[in-house]
Amino acid sequence: MKTYEFTIIASGLDSTAPDFEDRFFEASCDDATLAFVNGRIVVEFEREARNFSHALASAIQDVMRAGATIEHIEPDCSRR
């Protein structure tokens, strides 16, 4: 397995809520670093998977399971 690095930009959760970080950890985002920048949730992943598609798909699912709304992915692979 290889490790893939990418960032998911999301919204929809209150960063000041006492369970903000726990929601992501419990949703299997324990391989990510969280930040809140300019009103957006920044989730920087270092995800191990068979390939990039699996890494990204599982991370998107996990961020949504935490209750966040996906805004975009960086680097934005749809522009390539």
Account of the protein in words:
The chain has 80 residues and is α+β, with helices and mostly antiparallel strands. The chain has a single domain, classed as Alpha-Beta Plaits. Helix content is 26%, strand content 40%. It is built from two helices and four strands. The N and C termini lie far apart (24 Å). The mean pLDDT is 93.
Compact description:
With 80 residues, the protein is α+β, with helices and mostly antiparallel strands. It has 2 helices and 4 strands.
Report the sheet-strand fraction: 35-45%
Give the termini separation: 24 Å
Taken in chain order, the helices and strands follow as: EHEEHE
Unreliable stretches, pLDDT < 50, 5 or more residues? none
Query: Would you tell me the structural class of the helices and strands?
Result: alpha+beta
